[in-house]
Design brief:
Order of helices and strands: HEEHEEEHEHEEE
Radius of gyration: 33 Å
Strand content: 35-45%
CATH topology of one domain: Alpha-Beta Plaits
CATH superfamily of one domain: Protein of unknown function (DUF541), domain 2
Structural class: alpha+beta
Shape: rod-shaped
Largest sheet: 6 strands, antiparallel
CATH class of one domain: Alpha Beta
């Protein structure tokens, strides 16, 4: 009798040990991926303005270029561009010669500015040209807070994955549960914007007070893969 009791207890113990394994084997999951593409308005701009002058002597050329870039810097400051968002390049001076004939000295320099209000570019650039800039070497628009834009796209990608997983679960007669695994995929920033480079404006030409600009948008794409727990629908 004692031997039989021990056999029964041993069998029950084995069943208890195997129960979690059996439960794990019947766990149902649904995996799906999500993608989101958000068009985020560009709210800032990079502007590069150049100054190029020719004078009879190197000293006069350098002085004239320095004076012009100084007036351009003043315009940017009055336009709300912070000092830390402005970087200048040193004045370069070289002899100007054509077909062996000495024409004078050319001096050039430039300033790169980050404009935090994209809408102000339409008035800042003309004002800089009127103040002494001789070229607009670059105007490019971008999203200033890339981290916030990416987080929004990532959240939308997760929602997309969940919506597709719910459809599959419903078709399979299951109820979607909690996510068991989440993997973040690639992220990309694709600017669709108005960009100009290499435009020059002679000092003698009339400069409009405003130029049309279209900052455009930047398309932010995020991808996620999610593995969900699933259970039979009630």
């Amino acid at each position: 009798m004692a031997l039989l009791r021990r056999a029964v207890l041993l069998a029950l113990s084995c069943l208890l040990l195997l129960a979690p394994v059996a439960a794990a084997e019947t766990t149902r999951t649904i995996g799906d991926s999500g993608t989101a593409r958000l068009a985020v308005p560009n709210d800032a701009a990079r502007v590069v303005l150049g100054v190029s002058v020719r004078r009879a002597t190197a000293t006069r050329a350098a002085g004239a270029a320095g004076a012009r870039i100084g007036r351009v810097l003043a315009v940017l400051g009055r336009g709300g561009v912070a000092r830390g968002d402005i970087a200048t390049r040193g004045v370069s001076v070289r002899r100007a010669v054509r077909r062996g004939r000495f024409l004078g000295y050319d001096a050039s320099t430039s300033v790169r500015a980050t404009v935090r209000r994209a809408g102000s570019v339409s008035t800042l650039v003309p004002a800089a040209l009127a103040a002494g800039a001789t070229s607009v070497d670059e105007v490019s628009f971008f999203v200033s807070d890339r981290k916030a834009a990416f987080r929004s796209a990532l959240a939308a990608a997760f929602d997309d994955a969940r919506a597709k997983a719910r459809i599959l679960a419903s078709r399979a007669g299951l109820t979607l549960g909690l996510p068991l695994e989440i993997r973040e995929g690639d992220v990309s920033f694709d600017p669709t914007q108005q960009r100009s480079s290499g435009h020059s404006s002679p000092v003698s030409a009339p400069v409009p007070a405003r130029i049309p600009t279209r900052p455009g948008t930047t398309t932010v794409q995020a991808d996620v893969s999610v593995l969900w727990e699933a259970s039979p629908a009630p």
